[in-house]
Write a structure and sequence with these properties.
CATH topology of the largest domain: Pectate Lyase C-like
Number of domains: 2
Helix content: 10-25%
CATH superfamily of the largest domain: Single-stranded right-handed beta-helix, Pectin lyase-like
Structural class: alpha/beta
CATH architecture of the largest domain: 3 Solenoid
Radius of gyration: 22 Å
Shape: globular
Strand content: 25-35%
CATH class of the largest domain: Mainly Beta
Strand order of the largest sheet: 2-1-3-6-9-12-15-18-21-24-25-26
Number of strands: 26
Number of helices: 7
Distance between the termini: 46 Å
């Protein structure tokens, strides 16, 4: 009998040791759960996403010293809320539990006029490093009413995978750090990718739901390692605003203007940098491609380029003379494992593969 007790005790100690070493935290969001209040930091199920962010248990460090991650696993449904991930909340992963990104929708409707400025309109705001989102939709449903941000992303080493970002003007504020958007759908009409992050968009669909520019990158000096890279992707357009997003989702509508064209980019700041690599472009792309935002001086500082563009919008001979057609060697500098590596040798492709 003593030997049996010893064996059982060993099993219990072993199990407790395993739990002590478990760095990651998994919590669920389900609207049927009760609301968590201060002191409820050990709950495993929360009724809203923000409630989970406010009260989830914190992850511990792995035995090798690396930080753990908090997975907030969201049940299918439409969540009418604004989400703010603060700087002290690093390594947060929002994971939709539906069969597709349409099954989990985070939505809100604020434009710059009603909110008091563009940077108060975002439906989701991510500030903590290591933010991830997988298999869900982030939407600003304000429509064609001015600046209205769906996601404001200021998270270094951020990954957005298999998601939909829906809006019209200023859909995605990709503004800080290194960001990787893969296998996703982003919809907007005017400057719907803007900010000063180093961001790579790989195997994405960028859908213009109205005439305007796709990108407004805002690098402020030539020595900044920032810029937007659209890689192995596809640009589509519906300038009448009549077509729904893929698979019947509810995106923001667009009021088409007389100019039935879209532009590849314009510099929100003088050194704005954007390149399109191996990307299919539609006939709606203005043959000139790029715009200097009303300042000829920007033509000397902004950097815009393409490599092996395809489709009816790939009119390379008509591009503005101050843009670039990249060589293979130049193109390789913008691949995600190099462009986003940084001093910590971050590999966004490998990290994205760990998500479902």
């Amino acid at each position: 009998m003593p030997r049996l007790i010893f064996c059982l005790a060993s099993v219990v100690v072993s199990s407790l040791s395993s739990l002590a070493l478990a760095a990651d935290v998994h919590v669920r969001v389900d609207p049927s759960a009760p609301h968590a209040n201060p002191g409820d930091e050990n709950l495993a199920v929360f009724p809203t996403i923000q409630n989970a962010l406010d009260h989830h248990p914190f992850a511990t460090r792995n035995p090798d010293g690396t930080a753990g991650r908090v997975y907030i696993e969201i049940a299918p449904g439409t969540y009418h809320e604004r989400i703010i991930i603060t700087q002290n909340h690093s390594n947060i992963s929002l994971v939709g539990l539906g069969k597709s990104p349409m099954d989990v929708v985070i939505t809100n409707s604020l434009n710059a006029k009603t909110a008091g400025g563009t940077f108060f309109t975002e439906t989701v705001e991510a500030n903590g490093a290591g933010f991830e989102a997988d298999n869900l939709t982030m939407e600003n449903s304000a429509g064609n009413t001015g600046q209205a941000v769906a996601l404001a992303n200021r998270s270094d080493r951020s990954i957005i995978k298999h998601c939909r970002l829906l809006g019209h003007q200023d859909t995605l504020f990709a503004d800080y750090g290194r960001q990787y958007y893969v296998d996703s759908y982003i919809e907007g009409g005017v400057d719907y990718l803007f900010g000063n992050a180093a961001a790579v968009f790989e195997r994405d669909e960028l859908h213009s739901n109205g005439p305007g520019f796709i990108t407004a990158q805002s690098r402020t000096s030539a020595d900044q390692n920032t810029g937007y890279v659209i890689l192995n992707s596809k640009v589509t357009a519906d300038l009448n605003g009549s077509a729904p997003p893929p698979e019947g989702g509810a995106g923001a509508a667009s009021t088409a203007s007389a100019r039935r064209m879209i532009g590849l980019g314009r510099p929100w700041r003088a050194f704005g940098r954007t390149v399109y690599l191996n990307t299919e472009l539609p006939a709606e792309v203005n043959p000139t491609g790029w715009n200097n935002w009303g300042s000829a001086a920007n033509e000397k500082t902004a950097y815009y380029g393409e490599y092996h563009s395809s489709g009816p919008g790939a009119s390379l001979a008509t591009r503005v003379p101050w843009s670039h057609q990249l060589t293979e060697a130049e193109m390789k500098e913008y691949l995600p494992q190099k462009f986003l590596a940084g001093s910590d040798h971050w590999d966004p492709v490998a990290e994205a593969a760990k998500l479902p």
